Amino acid sequence: MNFLSLSFLVFGAVVFALWWALPARFRPWALAAANVCFALCFGSQALVALALITAAGWLCGLWLGRGGGKAALAVGVLAGVAPLAAFKYLPALSGRWEALAGFSGLLLPVGISFYVFKTITYLVAVYKGELAAEKNPLFCFAYTGFFAQLTSGPIQQAKDFLPQLKNPPAFDRALALNGCVRLCWGIFLKKCLADWFAAYYNALYQPDHYYSLGIVWSLAAYSLYIYFDFASYSQLSIGVANLLGLRCGENFMSPYLSRSVGEFWRRWHVSLSSFLRDYIYIPLGGSRNGPAALVLATMVTFLVSGAWHGATLGFVVWGGLHGAYLLAGRATRGAREKAWGLLRQRPDSPVRSVVSWAVTLCLVCFAWIFFFSGDLAQVRLLMSYLLQPMPLSVQYLKESFTQLGYTTAVLARLGLFALAAFGVDFAARREGFGSWAAARKGWAQALFCYGCIFASLLWGAAGTLQNIYFQF
């Protein structure tokens, strides 16, 4: 069930009405029923996998509450990670992926990565004493299977989100308005940007049919597509939660405005980055146990991040490349500071900010090649054509765009919309979109919503593509 479909609009309206019409003690039951209905839209296997993994987490949580200690935690984590790994990697590792691809709907239950991670946050919170073991499995199911976060996250921490579900807050007009603003912004990002850019990175599929500059433009289009697509889903998901009176943390904090790769990962997919930091990087030693532990923790964390996205070497290399970026950044920090000092550029100087931003953006976009391709042979083919000479002529520039299918009108519209989106990102870069939007006057929020809806109706892409993170 797509968030922008008529069926979800009806579904969401019913859930919203029931949630606020029922007494607070009955709302978790309504939410659990909504989770069941939503999961069933993706087949019975999706609901069965969700129910079984939630039940395993709940039982291990009870075990932890009775003094199960590390054994209970290990069993609970394994009960989630083992089926996740099996669904994701066994077909590929067995060499029978192509034969089984036709049954991929049976192989990977929708959202399994996200609710497995949410179950882990619950178990760790109980283990650390941050949460009491939940005796009622209904609350665990309401949390792990929360329909707005089921297919693509965000991964809300149990210690922050579960108490809100157990004791639903009263209606908050300001929060509901903020949720509406998020929904409108998410629709704009999806319809006017993500789904349009999805049509203009064809050169990454067949680089031998395009100019080198066309491959560069395709990589830029893919980089924008993956950001706007996932950011739109996060806004929609958080907006739905806000309409139910539930507060969620930001999942994207203007990542393409980062001035270092480390900053990029503090702003990109914040819920996953925080999960990997808290449950892999820090337990492995982090940055406080010497250089060897730092290198090990960094590389393992990013290799796991890459492998989580898929069972191909491209994803693993993508993760490893970002780990290498971070380590190289740490190793060269002193030399770079001296160089900037010789150039008399303070940390906040405009020249240093622009150069750092441009270098970071280039590194991140280059790494997307591996993320997109998955297959290293395809990456080598892309690189061989990407590095060909580019003539300095207006005709070459024009033909590069024409090959990709761009028209003057499309270029102008996408350019203006992308500038508008990054203008909002720039304005909200410190506090996040939600806080930035909430600080606007009521009339400004209303005007913002009307503008997003008007643009989406008038210039939005026809149909709605599936969210890219749905496959993970």
Structure description:
With 472 residues, the chain is mostly helical. It is built from 22 helices and no strands. Helix 2 crosses helix 8 (137-144), helix 10 (173-197) runs antiparallel to helix 11 (212-243) and helix 11 (212-243) crosses helix 17 (350-373). The longest helix has 32 residues, at 212-243. It has helices at residues 6-21, 27-40, 44-65, 69-93, 97-100, 104-107, 112-127, 137-144, 158-166, 173-197, 212-243, 261-267, 270-281, 290-309, 313-331, 333-342, 350-373, 376-386, 394-404, 408-427, 433-438, 442-459. Helix content is 71%, strand content 0%. It is globular, with a radius of gyration of 23 Å. The model is unreliable at 96-106 (pLDDT under 50).
Give a brief outline of the structure.
By secondary structure, this protein is mainly α. It is built from 22 helices and no strands.
Number of strands: 0
pLDDT < 50 runs, ≥5 residues:
96-106
- What is the CA-CA span between the terminal residues? 16 Å
User: Helix segment count?
Assistant: 22
Strand content range: under 5%
What do the pLDDT scores average to?
91
Radius of gyration: 23 Å
Oligomer: single chain
Structural class: mainly alpha
Shape: globular
Order of helices and strands: HHHHHHHHHHHHHHHHHHHHHH
Helix content: over 70%
Topology diagram in text:
Elements: H1 6-21, H2 27-40, H3 44-65, H4 69-93, H5 97-100, H6 104-107, H7 112-127, H8 137-144, H9 158-166, H10 173-197, H11 212-243, H12 261-267, H13 270-281, H14 290-309, H15 313-331, H16 333-342, H17 350-373, H18 376-386, H19 394-404, H20 408-427, H21 433-438, H22 442-459
